[in-house]
Amino acid sequence: MGNSNLFGVEVKHFRSNHTLRLRNKLVSIDEPMIMAIVNATPDSFHATSRINSQLELDAVAKNCVRKNVKIIDLGAHSTRPGYEVIAAKEQIVRLKPFLSRLRSKFPELYVSVDTSLPDVARFALENGADLINDVEGGRNFPEIFDVCAEFNAPYILVHSRGNPDALHQKASYENVTADVLMELSCQIQKIKHAGVKDIILDLGFGFSKSLEENYELLKNLNIFHILNFPLLCGISRKSMIYKKLNASSELALNGTTILNTFALMRNATILRVHDIDEAQEIIKLLNIP
């Protein structure tokens, strides 16, 4: 687990945060955690993550409980390349039956809701969600910070650029690691100012970055511990894997496992994945305390 160097500053191997406040209790994150991706959408890029009924949700949730997965990330708006922006009202319609089901039948699972819209975040936190995962990082709808602060909910800050309908558009970076570090730092100050106490960082692999820039960020993952927040790594079956392998998302499981292993060896705190069994095996085999 090597050291990283940026502008001559050495950043050593360490994990800086050891707890998250969820449901007003401190939850240890001394060991890496798995976040299972569940999509209440008809168009998410990996079809097997989609659910269409409560029975399908039950099957996923039961497997999460069996495999000691702590968090389900429930999304009602696909951000696949070429996605269509979904209004808050429709996102809420999609989320409603699944949120109440998870909280009532699987109270041992924490529920993250993947949304950038303050109204959806409020509905989710009022109806069983525990944290908010915002792929836009509050850039377009900063009121989402106030919602999370009101409910004392952790906020997942994802790095991206662009408008809600153009998150995959290539951006220009002078130095992608330094630029992402600076932009995350600026957003952190705004989030803290709003009163949010728990922040999780996601470097936004696949959003407004080239193939090469994604891999540079992954290589430099350790550097981002300098911000003193847990790191979530969301690379599961993404194009940075299957494009490099000239394959498809359906054939990207092995590549996902390799890169998730690499991320854990650079102290990623949470792995956001489609395939929880394989992710759990990584943690067991690496035996990371």
Structure notes:
It contains nine helices and twelve strands. It has 289 residues and is α/β, with parallel strands linked by helices. The chain has a single domain (18-286), classed as Alpha-Beta Barrel (TIM Barrel). The strands form three sheets. Strands 5-6-7-8-9-10-11-12 form an eight-stranded parallel β-barrel, surrounded by six helices. Strands 1-2 form a two-stranded antiparallel sheet. The protein has a two-stranded antiparallel ribbon with strand order 3-4. Helix 1 crosses helix 2. It starts with a strand and ends with a helix. Mean pLDDT is 88; it is low at 1-5 and 7-16.
Reconstruct the topology from this structure.
Elements: E1 4-6, E2 9-11, E3 19-22, E4 25-28, E5 33-39, H1 54-66, E6 71-75, H2 88-105, E7 110-114, H3 118-126, E8 131-134, H4 143-150, E9 155-158, H5 176-194, E10 199-202, H6 211-219, E11 231-233, H7 239-242, H8 253-265, E12 270-273, H9 276-286
Parallel strand pairs: 5-6, 5-12, 6-7, 7-8, 8-9, 9-10, 10-11, 11-12
Antiparallel strand pairs: 1-2, 3-4
Overall pLDDT confidence: 88
- Element-by-element helix/strand order: EEEEEHEHEHEHEHEHEHHEH
Radius of gyration: 17 Å
Tally of structural domains: 1
Helix content: 25-40%
Strand order of the main beta sheet, please? 5-6-7-8-9-10-11-12
- The CATH superfamily title: Dihydropteroate synthase-like
**Overall body shape:** globular
Poorly predicted regions = 1-5, 7-16
In DSSP terms (H or I, runs of 4 or more residues), the helix count works out at 9
Class from secondary-structure proportions: alpha/beta
Second-tier CATH architecture: Alpha-Beta Barrel
Beta-strand segment tally: 12
- Binned strand content: 15-25%
